[in-house]
Amino acid sequence: MRDEQDLLRTLHSAADQARSVPGGLTEAVAARRRRRRARHRAQVTLAAAAVVLVAGGTAFALSRGGGQPADPATQAIATATAIPSSDDPAPTSAPPEHITNLNPKAVTKIPIKAVNGGKYRVAAALSPTEILLTAEKSFEKAGQVLIYDTPAKSARLLGDVPSPREGYFAQDFVADDRSVAWWGETPNNDDVWADLWVIPRTGGEARQLKELTGDAAEIENLNVTADHVVWSVRKGGVYRIPLAGGEPEKIQNSDDLHLDRWPWAYALGPGKMSERSHSRLVNLETGQTIDVKVSEGDRGVYCTSELCIGSNGGTSFTQRPDGSGRRKLPAEVSMAGPEERLEGDLLPAVGTHETAPLVYDLKRDRVFMFGKSGVGFGRLPGVLWWDDDARMVETCDDVCTAAEKGGGKEYTVVNLLALRDSYPSE
């Protein structure tokens, strides 16, 4: 009889290989074929056990306006609350409330079947009332990009997603106030190739900015700013290209850096990839550098310029990058990997309360539930989603596999940017 840790290891392995999202765990083969990166992805998770929640992120590919006011997600990060130092675990919270108690307007239903007959895919939260979607034109291939207005319950078409090569798949979609950008690749080919696209947020015809080869084509994370598309590559290094067109350039002194949320990038310390921690943060606009203090036994420490999250042994914690203000998180909140990401004062995290996925509110020290146990859910920039009518079912023979059963009518979507707006003015 396998215990929970055995199940955890099995599901971690499955999540690392299957990058599909709710409504498509059975598409794991196609997802693995077309998505090579180990980071910055929506991961399939199983709420019936403690498993990884991603962002994808990235880490997330949340966009920033270069030299412009930060977008809502950036503002949420920047206002993360400083927390008092404590050597003791945070108090066990009261029974979790449902996330609709924080802000019912942050939770909405979106149909899975697109107007074009394909399937909608959730791509990002753009604002407290807007969700970026793609619509498939064929299996796993984005054909259109749209903005879904949650109060109006309607989708507005921005334009088509071109497919310039055989075997082409569009990848991460990101946005700022003016533009939506994405990159694509041909993952079934042996060549190292990618391209970059941009379309106005008001709609129009997509423009291919550049075809990339070599190191610059090994894209791991993408941002769009007011003037540039910016990305980093797996081995380290941050590049940018003007939205107006031109040649890509590698940003000076970025060889060991990975892009997070523009203008911030990070360097990684030593260790296994799944346990490596941020060692240094760099503002690529100002040159400001912040050294991250990591204590013995810490793993998967991820930092914004204001706050870090990580784990040590069986305990999760938050701290400031300099190591001050360290505080253990409540027993209900468990981090199972390095991919968890802060969304302002909210930490979507693995939960232990009745096996349901949780969001921990750092400011209020309260735990909120979302979804149902046994439901697969996805996470991308500023957004969580799942199919209430689908269930993750694990079967074991020589190898244990998980498959999604049922559902297919609508997603339940939590807009984390709308939850940010639930905080009272101070």
Can you give a write-up of this model?
The protein has 426 residues and is mostly beta strands. It has one domain (4-420): Methylamine Dehydrogenase, Chain H. Helices cover 8% and strands 39% of the residues. The chain has helices spanning 4-17, 28-34, 72-78, 416-420; strands at residues 97-98, 107-111, 120-127, 130-138, 141-149, 154-160, 169-175, 179-185, 193-200, 207-213, 219-224, 228-233, 238-242, 249-250, 258-259, 264-268, 278-283, 289-291, 298-303, 308-312, 315-319, 327-328, 333-334, 346-351, 358-361, 366-369, 377-380, 383-386, 390-396, 400-406, 410-415. The strands form eight sheets. It has a five-stranded mixed β-sheet with strand order 1-26-25-24-23. Strands 2-31-28-27 form a four-stranded antiparallel β-sheet. It is globular. The model is unreliable at 1-87 (pLDDT under 50).
* CATH topology descriptor: Methylamine Dehydrogenase, Chain H
Can you give the mean pLDDT?
Answer: 77
Provide the low-confidence segments as ranges: 1-87
What is the molecular shape? globular
- Per DSSP E runs of 2 or more residues, the count of β-strands stands at 31
- For the biggest β-sheet, the strand order reads 1-26-25-24-23
Number of domains: 1
